[in-house]
Write a structure and sequence with these properties.
The chain is an all-alpha fold. Helix content is 70%, strand content 0%. The chain starts with a helix and ends with a helix.
């Protein structure tokens, strides 16, 4: 169980885990994890959380806004941000799967797979 699954189980009204959230949104679970990580990282920063996460991941703001709504709103992002702050290595592995220092290509690769379904 991922740290995000653990947090989702504690938030009333949210899906119980990343897989259920992904199913609800119709996107891959790995993409949901990357989105939550980027949102959590952007949450304490100055500026709009969704726009900052979109710039970091390349995901559109509509999808990110849906994720924020599903996980309990901006207030719930504090729990995710705290979890990532307590384990910063988890953020790097979630956002940059191939370890090249650029998370955008990883997220875009997942998104292409989503939209190229036959």
């Amino acid at each position: 169980m991922s740290m995000f699954d653990t947090i989702l189980k504690t938030i009333a009204g949210s899906p119980d885990d990343v897989v259920n959230l992904a199913d609800k949104l119709g996107i891959p679970p790995g993409l949901v994890e990357k989105a939550i990580a980027a949102l959590a990282q952007a949450h304490p920063m100055q500026g709009d959380t969704v726009e900052l996460a979109s710039a970091k991941t390349g995901l559109d703001t509509g999808t990110l806004s849906q994720i924020v709504a599903q996980i309990g709103g901006e207030g719930s992002l504090t729990e995710f941000a705290t979890a990532i702050q307590n384990d910063p290595g988890s953020l790097a592995s979630l956002l940059d799967r191939d370890g090249d220092g650029n998370p955008v290509n990883d997220v875009m690769g997942m998104a292409k797979g989503l939209f190229n379904k036959g």
